[in-house]
UniProtKB/TrEMBL annotation:
Superkingdom field: Bacteria
GO molecular-function term, one example from the UniProt record: isomerase activity
Source organism per UniProt: Nitrospirillum amazonense
Alphabetical keyword list: Disulfide bond, Isomerase, Oxidoreductase, Redox-active center, Signal
Taxonomy of the source species: Bacteria, Pseudomonadati, Pseudomonadota, Alphaproteobacteria, Rhodospirillales
Protein name: Protein-disulfide isomerase
Length: 246
């Protein structure tokens, strides 16, 4: 026991000394890092930019995965109206509200694109989020399909200048009558359970892929929030088309 005790004490002292040296080494390293960052603060900006880029790439990858998982619901729902070439090689999915002023601004841009680019198809999804008026307009628009005039009423609603949150059922009927729809039949058809379910399904789909407002567009595997300028839209379509090229 007398032989072991000195050895144990020696070992403890060595361990203590090693720990102290390690602590000093860490403190010295921390001091050098601190001094470097003080002298080179631009490194912090570069780190923040790198982190932001990494997080953006991760979000983009996640969004692409979600879009891919919901491909058929987004781009192949037989109940959705389509602008442009039904067999186009690039699909633009627009979630819009019939009362949304930005959606109305976007409408001529989409019309111009399908006229100038024969390879584009635009899928239209009624996302009624602005209140009772937009809900009524969406129901009537979908009901117009029964008369083969969805796109006609859609164009008329997009061109209407009624201020946001002031669209009434009477005004929607007036617009519909103006483009030749049977408004009595339209009103009956707008009450169908199928239309209610379709609107609910569209809201759920928008939430799933991260669209919270209108307009929201899906082009290729990318989700775009807000109205796009003609140039931005054309570039997004070109990028989606290039991504398909082997």
């Amino acid at each position: 026991m007398r032989t072991i005790l000195p050895a144990l004490l020696t070992s403890c002292l060595l361990l203590s000394s090693t720990a102290t040296q390690a602590a000093r080494s860490v403190d010295d390293f921390d001091a050098r890092i601190h001094a470097y960052l003080i002298n080179h603060p631009e490194v912090l900006t570069e780190m923040q930019q790198a982190l932001a880029a990494k997080q953006a790439a991760e979000r983009e990858a996640q969004t692409r995965a979600i879009v891919a998982a919901n491909h058929d619901a987004l781009m192949a729902d037989a109940g959705d109206a389509v602008l442009g070439n039904p067999k186009g090689d690039v699909t633009v999915v627009e979630f819009f509200d019939d009362e949304c002023p930005y959606c109305k601004m976007m409408a001529p841009t989409l019309e111009a694109v399908v006229k100038t680019d024969p390879g584009v198809r635009v899928v239209l999804k009624e996302l009624a989020v602005l209140g009772p008026g937009s809900e009524i307009a969406a129901r009537y628009a979908l009901a117009a399909q029964q008369q083969g005039k969805y796109l006609v009423l859609h164009a008329a609603l997009m061109a209407d200048k009624t201020p946001e949150h002031q669209l009434t059922e009477a005004r929607v009927k007036e617009i519909a009558a103006g483009v030749g729809l049977d408004t009595a039949r339209l009103e009956r058809d707008s009450q169908s359970a199928d239309i209610v379910v379709r609107l609910q399904r569209t809201r759920a789909l928008a939430q799933t892929i991260g669209i919270r407002g209108t307009p929201g567009l899906v082009i290729g595997g990318t989700v775009h929030s807000g109205a796009m300028t003609p140039d931005t839209l054309v570039k997004a379509i070109a990028a989606a088309r290039a991504a398909k090229t082997p």
